[in-house]
Design a protein that fits this description.
Layout (H helix, E strand, L loop, with lengths): L14 H8 L8 H4 L9 E4 L3 H5 L4 E4 L6 H17 L4 E4 L10 E3 L7 E3 L3 H8 L3 E4 L1
Parallel strand pairs: 3-6
Antiparallel strand pairs: 1-2, 4-5
Helix pairs in contact: 4-5
Amino acid sequence: MGLRCAYDGGDRSDPRAESLLRAGHALPFCPEQLGGLPTPRPAAEITGGDGAAVLDAAARVLTAAGEDVTAAFLRGAQEAARLAQAADAGAALLRSGSPACGAGWIHDGSFTGRLTAGDGVAAAALRRLGMKLESI
């Protein structure tokens, strides 16, 4: 949506998302920032599963240096779900590949750029609320 919240400080703008925001049909948020992580921040990937597994304490979110940032991702997912419920949102437009927002595809935890099927942590939390998820 043009906000500089990507891990590298970039904005990952998407015209469709920006149009929804301008029309008042979208609520911008970044689960990683909501969880307390700075921007920019080290890249992170889910190891041992996907976002649903992180929510169930069966997987972790780690940086390439091995720092465990799972707690921040869980806080961010909880806040994203709270915001979605407060806004009575039925759908979410999320950034593909992200360990927080990936909907359907995330990086595989190897830091090689490979993707695998699964949701990011916030996407999994939103899916558990019954929300329709769409990737950009």
